[in-house]
């Protein structure tokens, strides 16, 4: 007996296939496009009304936007915030704009950059760690792949009529995607940037960078990367302005400087010869006094004690002092040279008549000063290449003239004590998400068309996720509910627009959590609970004997000691109140867990987990 239903169904499928093969489709299959069409589709042209697709156009008078993000700079490094390293161009922006002294990052590179570009907390952007295979994990928060639901500022502004450019460090592309065969959807050009020139990883040689131009790797020309990215940024803007002078641009200027390797021409480093011979203890005291004079820290503030793991400068040998001072001379020259290239970009905008309608956000550091230089500094061999600290120190002394030169390695970095010095007035350093020394970085906002005060200081609490909504408010546009037909997660940041012309406005960003490889904290309306976590990077990477993984307590996330601070009265965390206010500490610890759950941070992963994964990764790679 014939199954008529089967034959009717088959005939329908065949008919659909035939129609598709001839270019004909059913009305049902195209109705979703017709339903969204803003015109009228009639049976004939006379019954229809055209509605042509138009390229997006920015609101009339929209400002150009320049985001500057410098790498690995502590709060007390630049002269703009009281440091002893000359940054005249950042000084000029600050003196004609605003200094935000209570602004925060995520304490390490990739999470900060993902949060900045998306306006979301890093775990929601799936960048609680890195895009590197050895520093990521197979869980949503840790996979290192920004989802399409958390669109970037470049995607938002491109769809609102902006040209979008990025130069320098990106640091958010998964390692597996970084070859010239892609896929390219997580390269900068796949995340909303019309053009990109720089490198995709976390660090690169400044003279031999792993250089990318749009969607292909290119051969570097031997010049310092800072010079190359500045030239490219100027070329992008020049070309756009020539073709479409009324079209605004968004430029993300993110040098690899001053992340390791510290490499710069001696023209710059030699400017600081002898300037730091008094050492890191003197530096901290000098900068602390300057910061009070500038009004960027409270007059009653106290300088935290030197970290117990660090030696007093006076206790070092003459040879050690000479070596360590040279490391910092190179770093200082590197930062001043970076400021020079920023100034070259700003001067171009001024000469072109573009600066007066350009909103500039300059973030001086994507985290606190780097803790990754060991106790003796790194030139061209790391600590694990030697049997003991004495051998390592002797090697560095013999190779002192290599510091800062192209012959150094990608991890070339200053000794750890300089990290605390350049983080003045705070404790600790990069990666320490529990401490202001890891998370508080200077922010400069310059846009005279809106900001009426010159040289103003703002103390409102801010976080890197706030820059995106602030930018949108300056332009006068809303964050979209969809990007390329993909529904977007809500923005987590709080716009700082309310504070631009009101120094006394109360903070609107009152709750923020932090987490980097076990170190964690939560801030709520001036109170902060913080958990230093061990093992951390120093435990695993700054000892010559760190060949074996430190034993891990499976209960380490529950048994470790927390600290409590009232930042309203003790802004740089010198007085731990945990014993005095146990109920407040308990409240904030519970709040951290709620924030972690809300933003999908779990599972908690620390440096011991990462180190074990790294050993496994290296072992498999050698097979």
Which SSEs are present, and which pair or pack?
Layout: H1 4-21, H2 27-36, E1 64-70, H3 88-95, E2 98-100, E3 103-104, H4 109-118, H5 153-158, E4 163-169, E5 195-199, E6 212-213, E7 216-217, H6 225-243, E8 249-254, H7 266-269, H8 279-294, H9 318-351, E9 358-364, H10 389-398, H11 416-422, H12 436-439, E10 443-446, E11 456-458, E12 462-463, H13 467-475, E13 482-483, E14 486-487, E15 511-516, E16 519-524, E17 527-531, H14 537-541, H15 556-559, E18 563-566, H16 582-598, H17 607-622
Parallel strand pairs: 1-8, 1-9, 2-11, 3-12, 4-5, 4-8
Antiparallel strand pairs: 2-10, 5-6, 6-7, 9-10, 13-14, 15-16, 16-17, 17-18
Model description:
- Residues 63-477 form the Sulfatase N-terminal domain.
- One of its GO terms (molecular function) is metal ion binding.
- Belongs to the sulfatase family.
- Keywords: Calcium, Hydrolase, Metal-binding.
- With 623 residues, the protein is of the alpha/beta class.
- The protein has one domain (64-307, 332-372, 415-615): Alkaline Phosphatase, subunit A, CATH 3.40.720.
- 32% of the residues lie in helices and 12% in strands.
- It is built from 17 helices and 18 strands.
- It has helices spanning 4-21, 27-36, 88-95, 109-118, 153-158, 225-243, 266-269, 279-294, 318-351, 389-398, 416-422, 436-439, 467-475, 537-541, 556-559, 582-598, 607-622; strands at 64-70, 98-100, 103-104, 163-169, 195-199, 212-213, 216-217, 249-254, 358-364, 443-446, 456-458, 462-463, 482-483, 486-487, 511-516, 519-524, 527-531, 563-566.
- The strands form four sheets. Strands 7-6-5-4-8-1-9-10-2-11 form a ten-stranded mixed sheet, sandwiched between helices. A four-stranded antiparallel sheet has the order 15-16-17-18, with helices on one face. It has a two-stranded parallel ribbon with strand order 3-12.
- Helix 6 packs parallel to helix 9 and helix 8 (279-294) packs parallel to helix 11 (416-422).
- The longest helix has 34 residues, at 318-351.
- The protein starts with a helix and ends with a helix.
